[in-house]
Amino acid sequence: MSALRSQPLQPLNSGQLNARTNSVTPVKPVKRYKENLQQVEQKQQTKKKKEKLSALCKTPPSVVRTRNGRDYRRGNFLGEGGFARCFQMKDASGQIYAAKTVAKASIKNEKTKTKLLSEIKIHKSLKHPNIVNFVDCFEDDINVYILLEICPNQSLMELLKNRKRVTEPEVRYFMVEVVGAIKYLHSRRVIHRDLKLGNIFFDPDMNLKIGDFGLASVLPTTDSKKYTICGTPNYIAPEVLGGKNTGHGFEVDIWAIGIMMYALLVGKPPFQAKDVNVIYERIKKTEYYFPEDKPISESAKQLIKDLLSLNPLNRPTIDEILSYEWFKGPFPDRTREVSLLEAPEGLEYISRVQSSINFKSAKDMAGIYTPKSKNPVEILRSDLHSEQPKAMLPQSLSPNNTKNKYQEVEPDQLGRPKRVNFNSQFSTTIKRLNETCFETYQNIRRLEHSKHDAIDAMELPKCENPTLISKWVDYSNKYGFSYQLTNDDIGVLFNDENTLLKLHNSNKFLELIYHEDEGWTCIENSLAHPPVQAKRQLEIVDFFAKYMNSNLSKVSENEERKEVVFLRRYTRTPEYIMFEMTNGNFQFNFKDHHKICISKSGLAITHISPNRFTQTHPLILIMQQGDFPKEPVPDCSRKIAIIKEAIKKRAFKET
């Protein structure tokens, strides 16, 4: 056993460029859910396997010491799963957490290691009021510890066991919190795949929190599928059981919401049976009923029926669920602790007006109105090289290692980092994205309506060719979006919304750091003395630079640096890719290899032909003539209309 524990785990191989992998390998139901198996021999076999894995997960020492010098004192045992055990952990300040503890001896191959790291990577990236907060991860010689927010009031499963059935007003409130969290997950292309009452916990204030991301996965695109059969038998969607023949997507979480709603209102899951195979057959036929002795409202039945549609496409989307008539019933202002044991009094007497107010407030707190759509999370395979032979966790996965990553810096004469004022040093104004989009859209719209009138001199800007994105690589499934400008500056817009720009023929590089409350801050650094946290990012920039210079062609000739320009955001559609730059320019690369850039707040337009011929003119003149004068552009007017609509969508989406 000791030899097994000390054996170093090999790092994962580097992934191919733009390749996405199914890095989550869920535990098979037969290993995790022995209570659903009918035959005694299968129960005993599963129990032996579980006992063996539990034996590998040794009780942590009374004091767990981490590499960064932070110590945690082990507290009470909280529970046990297939591969992990949970304990309370207390830090030096007295703050208590839950620590999911995984034995290193159970991580015997790359598949198991990838599964664990995928769970950590996905959970670490999530920040939502109704998702269990990921605090940190660390390890000692024996175990890996995932430190989580503690939810002391147990789960919806314990509540249902105590209550037998839950009232409709309470379930309405629960469903809003769950829908808010799932909407956030889906906006990041994360499928949970193991939503169930036992994985939804109450925090100290009785807010619901979704936890356990061991089966979660990231979809490369919104319409792609996963094919692994996984989940808890009572909650598995029918398309999951189809395996490779059908595939599954976000709709499996919608199905699970229906199962949970039914279970809370009726008292047990709709397809429950002693034999797991009977459960699966019932699911495939959607064979369930509403018992007469446990009446629920017709509007609740209708929502459940739609959520449990056999065809995933017939289920309501996550945005449609809360528009159902059922949510117009009595709605409480919050969940109280008494709900853990009994129904609160007076729920049926909440007025329609007060219910409407409470419903809106609950949706607001659950983030229904403001979901944050982010790039999907993926395991950074090249980051999994451990610095120590016995180490398994890459340092990049620990939030506490990067919490001081971007700190305040003062101007320095020795080449060390200094804060850059965009307006003065680089003559670049960084406006809010919606302001830039709105101003540009309004000008395009105004020019469109006045193209038959006399031209105002103010609508004829100086038309020099703008700085453009000459080459790009979308590697957002790993690191971010890399681009090379026509002045040969190379940048990477990382998945955390920050950017590093390496200036051509310079010993400086710039970090454009995004703060949600403060906007963007630019910090100038020396390549000779980069900050520790930037060294890895510089390696990524160099990697992209080498790739682009070896494999991609420029869209135009080299130019001198007129200004420092960053990419702030990009949008990809089947017809074009849209780049939004810090200088207010919008570049559109169409699929027919023609590029068009809108600059000067919508007053100037630039065309770059497939053979790199570049021309810039006042937009009003191109609108009047219907095309560019020196070299025609296929479907020029249509392309301008597409550009206007794309900028309009951005302007009003951000407002």
Description:
This protein is α+β, with helices and mostly antiparallel strands and 655 residues long. Among the domains are: 151 residues, Phosphorylase Kinase, domain 1, CATH 3.30.200.20; 248 residues, Arylsulfatase, C-terminal domain (2-Layer Sandwich). It contains 16 helices and 23 strands. The strands form 5 sheets. It has a 7-stranded antiparallel beta sheet, covered by helices on one side. Strands 1-2-3-4-6-5 form a 6-stranded antiparallel beta sheet. A 6-stranded antiparallel beta sheet has the order 18-19-20-21-22-23. A hairpin with a 3-residue loop joins strand 2 and strand 3. The protein is globular and about 80 Å long. 38% of the residues are buried. The N terminus is likely disordered.
Summarize the structure.
It catalyses: L-threonyl-[protein] + ATP = O-phospho-L-threonyl-[protein] + ADP + H(+). The chain has 655 residues and is an alpha+beta fold. It contains 16 helices and 23 strands.
The major sheet is characterized as: 7 strands, antiparallel
Q: Tell how many strands the DSSP assignment holds.
A: 23
Amount of helix: 25-40%
Low-confidence stretches: 1-41, 43-54, 379-390, 400-430
Q: Which CATH class of the domain at 407-654 applies here?
A: Alpha Beta
Rg, rounded, reads 28 Å
Keywords: ATP-binding, Kinase, Nucleotide-binding, Repeat, Serine/threonine-protein kinase, Transferase
Binding site for ATP: 104
Domain Protein kinase: 72-327
Biased composition (Polar residues): 1-25
